[in-house]
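4.2 Preliminary Data

To establish feasibility before requesting continued support, the project team ran the inverse folding procedure on a target of 150 residues. The structure was first converted into the token representation described in Section 3, and no sequence information of any kind was made available to the design step. The complete token record follows.
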């Protein structure tokens, strides 16, 4: 669906319809397959991972109830590129940027770690323990994120 943002942005944006959002559930296994085969465990300088695409799997949890009670925004920095994940009302949404304010926590990780977690080669918890993921922010937001996606 095409929409127009009000000033000062005054830009045309596109949002998924309900049918498009439903399709996301079918795409999650394809995302995992792509991460397993397109991003090697040791990515080279030509390997690029789009953080917005990487976060799509978070928007279609297999156990949506894990998002209940969370009201937070997370900045993900993947290979120096940024995307935002907003969790509210039991739903996660990928954002292009923030409308103001600061995120509740920042998660920094590399493309190889995104691929390892997304493809099931490791878990988010194991990646944090191994020092491959850094999470900085308010303790409640950090705890919520770990609980939601463990």
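Position-by-position output of the design step:
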């Amino acid at each position: 669906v095409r929409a127009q943002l009000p000033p000062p942005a005054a830009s045309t944006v596109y949002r998924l319809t309900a049918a498009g959002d439903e399709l996301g559930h079918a795409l999650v296994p394809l995302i995992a397959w792509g991460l397993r085969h397109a991003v090697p465990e040791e990515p080279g300088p030509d390997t690029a991972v789009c953080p917005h695409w990487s976060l799509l799997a978070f928007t279609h949890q297999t156990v949506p109830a894990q998002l209940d009670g969370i009201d937070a925004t997370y900045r993900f920095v993947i290979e120096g590129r940024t995307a935002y994940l907003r969790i509210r009302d039991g739903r996660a949404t990928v954002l292009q940027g923030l409308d103001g304010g600061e995120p509740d926590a920042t998660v920094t990780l590399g493309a190889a770690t995104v691929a390892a977690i997304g493809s099931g080669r490791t878990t988010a918890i194991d990646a944090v323990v191994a020092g491959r993921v850094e999470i900085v922010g308010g303790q409640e937001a950090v705890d919520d994120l770990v609980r939601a996606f463990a």
